[in-house]
Amino acid sequence: MRVFLTGATGFIGSHVIPELLHRGHNVLGLTRSDAGAQQLEAAGADVHRGDLERPETLASGVAAADAVIHCAFDHDFANFVENTRKDERNIAAMGDALAGTNKPILITSGIGIGTPRNGGPATEDVLNPLHANPRIVTELAAAALIARRIDVRTIRLPQVHDTTKAGLITPLIAEARRAGAVAYLGDGKTRWAAAHISDVAKLYLLALERGEPGARYHASVEEGVDARTIAEAIGEGTGLPVRSIATEDIERFFGWMAPFAALDMTASSVLTQERLGWEPTGPDLLTDLAAMDHSEPMIG
Question: Which tens digits make up the pLDDT trace of 136-157?
């Protein structure tokens, strides 16, 4: 298949490319820059010029492909709500280009959207339309496409990591450097699900080749790693002190990440592994945190 890949030069997308190519697929990667075009060409992908500010450029990429993997998202958290609306517009534009075809589109979301209302780990068969996370807009946009009988499959991501980057833990380290200490709230028992980037990239391929229309898949390998353990690993690597903080100190130590400090973001992938035959093999989060070079700030 010829696969149109948004976010092709990003952390996730750049790892999805070799998985697709290894299976004999052709990749058409979205980029807005000359540097991005050079990166894509070096990786063996074809180049499609466009950007997230112009939904019509994504629609034209869809028209030139047999399938779509949508990994792109603007991670400027200072404008998080508006960026979810931008994602909604882009998904709608791609949906218009997919209408009347059998082309599948894989949408990227977060595992928290599958958290049951009564608590517990997120599961694939749960979609809470009233979820407080603004990223719910992404899955509501996907649901609108499904209602139009478009083949939509959703990949929900946890904290995706390797030895250079680790989801929200990357900015968490930056905030710890700013505050002069690595903090966790209270007893540090809140947990975040995690997965190695190599396993996540393989899941996108499996969802493309074996996935079902309307299905949601969880890219979580570790159901949850507790906040205190994460903080201690960061402290070990950076040399920063580690401390428990009270609610009134969250903004001081977490900065713009304060809303995430008390979130329990756990997720099961049992159904995903059963349905797709996904067998994760990558290193766990703590192994990667221990192997990171903390002499310099992590890659953003």
Answer: 999 999 999 999 999 999 999 9
Predicted structure pTM score: 0.95
Distance (Å, rounded) from C-alpha 155 to C-alpha 7? Answer: 14
Beta partners for residue 160, in sequence order: 195
C-alpha 199/C-alpha 214 separation (Å) is 22
Helix (H, G, I), strand (E, B) or coil at 156: strand
**How many CA atoms, within 13 angstroms, populate the side-chain half-sphere of residue 220?**
27
DSSP 8-state class, residue 122: B
What letter represents residue 36's amino acid? G
Sequence-ordered alpha helix ranges (H) in the chain: 11-22, 34-43, 55-63, 80-98, 136-147, 169-179, 197-210, 227-238, 250-254, 270-276, 285-291
Q: Give phi and psi for 114, each to the nearest 5.
A: -95, 10
Q: Identify the pLDDT of residue 112.
A: 87
Amino acid (1-letter code) at residue 256 = W
